[in-house]
Amino acid sequence: MNKLIFFDTETTGNTEKDFLIQIAYKNDNESFVGLFKPPIKIPPEASAIHHITNKMVADKPTFKESTNQPIIKKLFEDKNSIVVAHNAPFDLMIIKKEDISLDKFICTLRVARYLDPEGKIERYNLQYLRYFLNLDVEATAHDALGDVLVLEKLFERLKNKIKKEENLNEDRAIEKMIEVSSHPSLLLSFNFGKHLGKKIEEVLRVDRGYLEWLLAQKQASDQIDEDWIYTLKHYLEK
């Protein structure tokens, strides 16, 4: 019997060098949120997003040293568990540093893109989708447990859509979401930079050099950008 676990992390930043500060999860039986002291200082630009300061975690254990780590590790790594996160590759990278590794997951970001093949949605970040889809949930943004509550609602909306559009039952819909989540998304247009709003295939025709440059930047970056690297390689046929 599959067990869905919705989870989110707050961190010191959004790169491979960053660490967990807060983790929250929710399943059918319980919800949990905990603060932990990261091995590096929390920079002010991170605090400006999630409002967690170094003072707030000064007397907290690190996650690895906490009594919560073995409990969460056992729960997440259980063979029947399916963890659900938005932009899951980043959160999975963060918890892997804390000795929690798993292969079976659902990324609601990738599923949302999959269900929007014409690219009608301008952005896919969690809070944008919350209001774009009019999800009925009371939750504080950029707080791990608040984001988990939004995530749970988003998951239900996406699951119901995939069931309806592909005529799938509950189990097959979840299997499809896992399959979609297991590989990078093929992006359609730019939501940043000098080609903002343009289709990537259009930019390929008029400014291939920009795509070449962007791919080099993404590959050299310490940010988690699997979808963009996959997309740029696809269009550049690399």
CATH topology of the largest domain: Nucleotidyltransferase, domain 5
Mean pLDDT: 94
The CATH homologous superfamily name of the largest domain equals Ribonuclease H-like superfamily/Ribonuclease H
Largest sheet: 5 strands, mixed
- Portion of residues within helices: 40-55%
Uncertain regions spanning at least 5 consecutive residues: none
The beta-strand count equals 5
The CATH architecture of the largest domain is 2-Layer Sandwich
Helix-strand string: EEEHHHEHEHHHHHHH
Gyration radius from CA atoms, angstroms? 18 Å
Q: Determine and state the CATH class of the largest domain.
A: Alpha Beta
Shape descriptor reads globular
Class by SSE composition: alpha/beta
What's the domain count?
2
Distance between the termini: 41 Å
Strand line-up of the largest beta sheet: 3-2-1-4-5
- Percent range for β-strand residues: 5-15%
The count of helical stretches stands at 11
